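Postdoc handover notes: sequence design on the structure in folder B. Input tokens:
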């Protein structure tokens, strides 16, 4: 399968690893939008949030367990942060492997652009 994030998990495409376990992989975004910008992905290929089901959602719950740990480790938990999932064309998704952006280290505006 020609999936950039599967290639990152397999090591075919280099990345700066932030966290890894049996279920998930996290790495620094190549084009950071904040002082800290981590991408968290399930090791299982799930194309988008539209493909999350009762059968495969454990990795999503796990990602949300790891996020506060990383935020504390990286030093921005107390000030706050944002977790973003872009889904589909209107959502601005550019890589079709489910991923969550964890951004911190600055204040973010609302509503999203
Ligand atoms: P999205 O637009 O939500 O699909 O997010 C895809 C993200 O992947 C963007 O923030 C890109 O900067 C990031 N990205 C693309 N290629 C790479 C790469 N080789 N290594 C790290 N991050 C990447
Ligand atoms: Zn993939």
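Designed sequence:
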């Amino acid at each position: 399968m020609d999936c950039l994030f599967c290639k990152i998990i397999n090591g075919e495409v280099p990345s700066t690893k932030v966290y890894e376990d049996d279920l998930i992989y996290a790495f620094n975004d190549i084009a950071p939008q904040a002082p800290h910008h981590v991408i968290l992905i399930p090791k299982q290929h799930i194309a988008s949030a539209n493909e999350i089901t009762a059968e495969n959602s454990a990795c999503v719950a796990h990602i949300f367990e790891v996020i506060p740990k990383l935020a504390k480790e990286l030093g921005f938990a107390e000030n706050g942060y944002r977790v973003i999932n872009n889904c589909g064309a209107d959502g601005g998704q550019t890589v079709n492997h489910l991923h969550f952006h964890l951004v911190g280290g600055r204040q973010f505006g609302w509503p999203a652009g």
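Context for whoever picks this up: The chain is about 25% helix and 20% strand. Don't rerun without checking with the PI first.
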